[in-house]
Amino acid sequence: MPKLWNETIDAHRRAVRDATLDATAALVAEQGLLSVTMAKIAEVTGIGRATLYKYFPDVEAILVAWHERQVTGHLEHLITIRDQVGDAGERLKAVLEAYAFISHEHHGTKLAARLHRGEHVVKAQHQLHHLIRDLLAEGAATGDLRDDVAPDELATYCLHALTAASSLRSKAAVRRLVSVTLAGLKPPRRSDGGLGCAGLSDAPQSRS
Fold first, then answer.
1. Spatial separation of the C-alpha atoms in residues 14 and 33, rounded to whole Å
2. Which of 5, 100, 145, 147 is the most exposed place for a label (fewest CB within 10 A)?
3. What is the pTM of this model?
C-alpha cells in the first residue's frame, strides 16, 4: 500500500478519534455521565455506531482516552517550559506556576476524580516528579536552591503543596501559593554571621 495512502488513513483515524473524544467530553459536561450513550455519541459526531465500536468498546473507554490525551498535553506543556532559556531556579518557577494553574483550572468534578485513578495518571505523575526533581538538583548544584534536603523530597513537597491550587478562587491566590512554595526552596540563611557552634561557645559570656 502506498505511503501517502497509509498517511491519509492514519490522519483519518486520528480525526475520528479526536472528534469522538471531544464530543464525548462535551456531552458528559452538558448532560452528565449517566446520560451519555454510544448511540448519542455516534449521532453527535456523525460516526456510525459500528465504526465507533471499532475504536472504543464503551463510553468509559472514550473518557479514559480523552483524559489521557489531556494529561499528556499538560505534561508536554510543562516539558516545553522546562526547556526554555534560563537558570534552574527561573525554569523551576515557571514549571511550578504552570502546574499550579493546571491544577486550578481542571478540578472539582466527579468525572475528573474518577478518571484521575488510571495508570496513565500514575505514569505522568512519575514523569512530572522526575522533571521537578532534576531542576531542583540542578539548582542545588549551582547554589541557587537549597541542598540540605534531597531533591526527591523537595519535589514531593512542591507537588503536594501545589495541589492546594485546585481549591483557590483566583489566579492571584495561585501565584501567592507558588511564591510561598518557592520560598521553602531557597538556601537556608545562616544567622550566626558565619560562626559555627564552636565559635559561639567561645564568645565572651555576659555576667548578670
1. 24
2. 5
3. 0.78
Half-sphere exposure of 54 (CA within 13 A, CB side): 8
For residue 138, give the amino acid letter.
E
Question: Domains in the chain and their CATH numbers?
Answer: 1-57 (1.10.10.60), 63-185 (1.10.357.10)
Identify the CA nearest to 113 among candidates 160, 161, 162, 166: 166
DSSP per-residue string spanning 23-80: HHHHHHHHH-GGG--HHHHHHHHT--HHHHHHH-SSHHHHHHHHHHHHHHHHHHHHHH
Q: Are the CB atoms for 96 and 132 separated by under 8 Å?
A: yes
What pLDDT digit, counting tens, does each position of 1-40 carry? 455 555 688 888 899 999 999 999 899 888 888 889 999 9
Through-space distance between the first and last CA atoms of the chain, rounded to whole angstroms: 97
